[in-house]
Amino acid sequence: MQTEKSSRLYKEAIELMPGGVSSPVRAFKPNPFYVSKAAGSKLFDVDGNEFIDYCLAYGALILGHANPEVKDALKEQLERGWLYGTPIELEVKYAKLIRKFYPSIEMLRFVNTGSEATMSALRLARGFTGKDKIVKIEGSFHGSHDAVLVKAGSGATTFGIPNSAGVPSDFVKNTLQVPFNDTEKLSELLEKNKDVACVIMEPVMGNSALIIPEGDYLKEVRRITKENDVLLIFDEIITGFRLSLGGAQECYGVKPDITTLGKIAGGGFPIGIYGGRKEIMSRISPSGDVYQAGTFSGNPMSLIAGYTTVKILERDRIVERTAEKTKKLCCGIRDLLNDKEGIELGQISSMFCIYFGKTPKNYHEALRLNKEAYMNFFRKLLEHGVFFPPSQFESCFMSYAHTEEDIERTIEAFSSAI
Ligand SMILES: *Cc1c(COP(=O)(O)O)cnc(C)c1O
User: Which atom belonging to ligand 1 lies closest to the Cα atom of 263?
Assistant: First the structure.
């Protein structure tokens, strides 16, 4: 594998940007590869290498890279301008489409990133209930704003700083934590604390490895939050349009009060969405007293890419068909893991994860995974032209653009790397 150009660029980047990157998990040793183009299931780097991509911008791309239909829609929009700072028809069309798949979302607002969506959803929950405390799940990741940078997953855990410096303890004294898959601890906490506005959670955790809810856990969480008069926020920024068109809430039959969407919803462009019951959402400015605003919110490029993507997902049953492809790959991987002690595989829909250790059911167990072994495996895969996320704590994703040949090549690469 040639790495000359990438390593030269990285040397320069390290002097120009912290860790040489624009977002932490992208940095790995000896150096990340610099992408020059992408198409379908593949990334191509500046040194002429080609990689089958299972990171897919951390789950944002379910159609693969540079989908031609999305590209055409974007081009057509470009011709008509790309930022107006006024309402557009597409907002109405896209909002209606989202509401069709997410009956829990009666009203919504478009924002620019997932972080912004969860930040705004938390403010809204507090404004609506008049209570200050929030409960999050240990190891869940909701973006990089103060209130949720406590035992946060993703890059925060990868780099050993789940509690970030620079977040005043006063800002997070109202952030309480419970373990995933544990309804008893949640019940106890909510009975003890009567000033909790909401519970925010990833219904399937995708940022502390992949952690799947057990049995009726999510239904129980819904029951407990209701009984305690606490709002339930599902952060479906990964799971939305991935587990099914209607997200984890559709798969598990649970109706949250507020939902956040992002990633796939922007079709490869920056987006965040938060929505929920009309009574709650009406509290947002200008119809209500909870302030939130943004220059680029609901911008035409993100909306056209997202809208076109979701229309394709619906028309071609992409979500189910991508899950089938993932099952096929995972079958092949399972066969290879049969005689391997201490390496396990988790899969749900088109998300999967190789655990170097036991399949975790919460953050505490995820922290016990062998991240050095994972990184060795990751580097070996890379040499064989397969790109998994560069951290044990991220989950792998499949796209509809992945082919039979990709799956075969990946299983071969996996076999050599393992
Ligand atoms: C990626 C992610 C976010 C943050 O979204 P950004 O667009 O990166 O700000 C929030 N919550 C979850 C569950 C995510 O996976």
Answer: 7
